[in-house]
What we know:
This protein has a 12-stranded antiparallel β-barrel. It is α+β, with helices and mostly antiparallel strands. The protein has 4 helices and 13 strands. The protein folds into 2 domains: 2-75, no CATH class; 113-311, Porin (Beta Barrel), CATH 2.40.160. Helix 1 (2-29) packs parallel to helix 3 (59-75).
Amino acid sequence: MNARMKRAASAGALAVAIFAGAPAFAQDATQDTPVSGQAHHEHHAQHTSQPRAAAPASAGSSAVPHARHDMDMTSAPAAHTRSPDYSDGHHYGTMEGMEMHDDPAVGSLLLDRLEYVDARDGGHAIAVDGQAWYGRNFDKLWLKFEGEHAEGRLQDMRTEALWSHAVAPFWDTQLGVRHDFGIGPDRTWAAFGIEGLAPYWFETEATFYVGQAGRTAARVAFEYEARFTQRLILQPSLEANFYGRDDPQRGVGSGLSDVEAGLRLRYEIRREFTPYVGVVWQQRFGRSRGFARAEGEPADDLQFVAGFRVWF
């Protein structure tokens, strides 16, 4: 009988101890989510500073709080934080050969026409028309040249050095100097112009010139490329020159001086090298027509041409 009473008393004491520790255990269970180190220490200080209800002095009852407290110390995970830029202290650098530049300085040389000319009156000549440029997307230096060599000498050559600045998509303004030489005295002009791609993909140039002794001039040029295939291309062109006053020494008259219309068919063996054949019609007007006849030259001429187009 005494043994049964002792066992019952021990069971009652153990139940009281468990019942007293249950609220604290439930409170600790809510702390399983990650917390910072400071919050953990504050919780620990609060937890240790609060008095606990005295439990019966027994081996079973005293072991439960200590075991629960040890579990709190080991179950709180370490804090995980990220740097503001999410780099975690890692520094990123460029990879050799993988750099990308959106505005590099580049250049190009284009011989748009290097051709042999067979004129209707039996004359022969070598004609050239080309340009080179160097610069960036918005600003470039342009060098342009166009001329003709016949009868063993240079007949006429127009050269221009222009600074080009992009003012709109597909359009640049150009400012520079032009120099003419060949038969007759040399002429130098200040040049102001615009160049770009007009609607329907017409390449357009329009330049105004101011020279010495009050001379003025203007030049307009248009080109178009009609692609029959990726390699076979028909290129019509039109160029007109105007002058503000007569210049008999160079054979040009005031007003509309001359017009040249061409039609060339080329085949791109490679993009950088393209042979072509074509036909060109030249017509002089006004006083320029009279000056040409006075020199024994035709006022209009039909020419057959063959040459190649190359760029680097």
